[in-house]
Every structure is written in structure tokens, then in C-alpha cells.
């Protein structure tokens, strides 16, 4: 498979503008490309497709790359099939996945990625790149017919992964606890991706980028921490 993916935990880190913290990696992903097809379906905060696309357009135009929104096309599958590259932004993962299926772009996206088209996701756009959306942090505000996602990688991702605060008196579940619950019913690995971190996937190779370690959860083992210099390629060969 000729995968060419950049899976980013978040679009904005503290003290930076939209996508600024990942500029170097985004430029590398899109080297030689002049345009990006933006999929605004996740609609963070209920923002309109038009306004969300304008936000993405403003960021990419600084880098000499034009942006069009998928909602601007009458034939969404055709637009995906003809795109130079695709970026799916963050927001609500359930809303996003429902729209991807309703507009019949799940299979075209999988096909284009297999052919090597650059794919970039942030937050919900990263979550849907995995096997299922079962490890999203979002509220299920709409009904989806299936949790099966784009399956561009054979594991699940938990964007915005947070470690427990040892000084907190909050008695709610931690991310570790929720992922442990997930593994009572699902076998695929889960990568907890901290803010500022991203996964770069090229073919059968994967690297962790950014300033932090990532926590990898396996169904039959204790969680493990991996540094950017560590080998994560085994996760592309599981299940």
C-alpha cells in the first residue's frame, strides 16, 4: 500500500495559530502539490462548512497551496477521486463519519490513499483514519450506522490523549481506563496521541513526530510509552 499520511492530534497547540505547529510536516507531506481538498464535515462548535473551509484556506494559502471544500462540489466522490490531496479537519467524529458515509466518499478515500494520495487529518480527521471511531473523545450527538472508519491504518487512535493529573480530585475515568474498557470488547491496538504529536505514515513505515512520547495500548499487555526515535512499524502489521 502506498500510504502517505500525516495524522495530527490537534490543529492548534497552546500559543500557536491554526496548523502552525505542524507546518514543517505539512509542507513535507504536500511537497509538489498545489491544491488540497478540505473536508469540513466535523464542524467544530457547529461552524458552517463555508466558514470552516475559509479557516483552512487562510492557513494553506500562506504556503502557496489552494484549498477547496468538499461541500462546494455537486459530486463528492468525483471530487475525492480527482483531488491532489485531502485534509479532514477536527470537530465531532460522529457527525464527520455520518457525513462521509452519507456522501459516499469512504470508499473513494480508501482507494485514493492506497494509490498514494496525501491524506492529512487533525483530531476527528485523525480518529477516522483508524480502524474504528471507538476511541474518540466526542459525544455521540448523531447516530451513525457503523463505527467502522476509513481504516487507513489497522489500529485506533485517541487524539488529545491526556495523562491523569496526580493533583486532581476529579473522580471520573481517565483515558487509560476508557481505553482499557475498549479493549474488553476490541482487539486492535490504540495509540494515545498527545497534543503537538503526529504520526507520519509512508507505505509500511511509521514515525512519531513532535515533542512528546505516545502511549500504545495493546489488548493483552500493559500500556507502553514510545519516543519519536522508537520503531512503531509493528503497529502497521497487526490484525
From TrEMBL:
Localization of this protein: Cytoplasm
EC number, as in UniProt: 3.4.13.21
A GO term from the CC aspect: cytoplasm
Pfam families for this protein: Peptidase_S51
Family matches, as InterPro entries: Class_I_gatase-like (IPR029062), Peptidase_S51 (IPR005320)
Oxidoreductase as UniProt keyword: no
UniProt keyword annotations, A-Z: Cytoplasm, Dipeptidase, Hydrolase, Protease, Serine protease
Family: Belongs to the peptidase S51 family.
Protein name: dipeptidase E
Organism name: Pontibacter flavimaris
Amino acid at each position: 500500500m502506498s500510504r502517505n499520511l500525516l495524522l495530527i492530534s490537534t490543529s492548534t497547540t497552546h500559543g500557536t495559530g491554526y496548523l502552525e505547529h505542524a507546518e514543517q510536516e505539512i509542507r513535507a507531506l504536500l511537497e509538489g502539490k498545489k491544491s488540497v481538498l478540505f473536508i469540513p464535515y466535523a464542524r467544530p462548535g457547529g461552524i458552517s462548512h463555508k466558514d470552516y473551509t475559509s479557516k483552512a484556506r487562510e492557513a494553506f494559502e500562506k504556503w502557496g497551496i489552494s484549498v477547496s471544500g468538499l461541500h462546494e462540489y455537486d459530486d463528492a466522490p468525483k471530487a475525492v477521486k480527482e483531488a491532489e490531496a485531502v485534509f479532514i479537519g477536527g470537530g465531532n467524529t460522529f457527525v464527520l463519519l455520518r457525513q462521509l458515509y452519507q456522501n459516499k466518499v469512504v470508499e473513494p478515500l480508501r482507494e485514493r490513499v492506497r494509490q498514494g494520495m496525501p491524506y492529512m487529518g487533525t483530531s476527528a480527521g485523525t480518529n477516522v483514519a483508524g480502524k474504528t471511531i471507538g476511541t474518540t473523545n466526542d459525544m455521540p450527538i448523531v447516530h451513525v450506522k457503523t463505527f467502522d472508519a476509513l481504516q487507513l491504518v489497522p489500529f485506533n487512535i485517541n487524539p488529545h490523549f491526556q495523562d491523569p493529573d496526580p493533583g486532581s480530585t476529579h473522580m471520573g475515568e481517565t483515558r487509560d481506563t476508557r481505553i482499557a474498557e475498549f479493549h474488553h470488547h476490541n482487539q486492535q491496538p490504540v495509540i494515545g496521541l498527545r497534543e503537538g504529536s503526529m504520526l507520519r505514515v509512508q507505505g509500511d513505515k511509521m514515525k512519531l513526530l513532535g515533542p512528546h512520547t505516545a502511549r500504545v495500548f495493546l489488548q493483552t499487555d500493559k500500556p507502553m510509552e514510545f519516543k519519536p526515535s522508537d520503531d512503531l512499524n509493528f503497529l502497521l502489521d497487526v490484525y
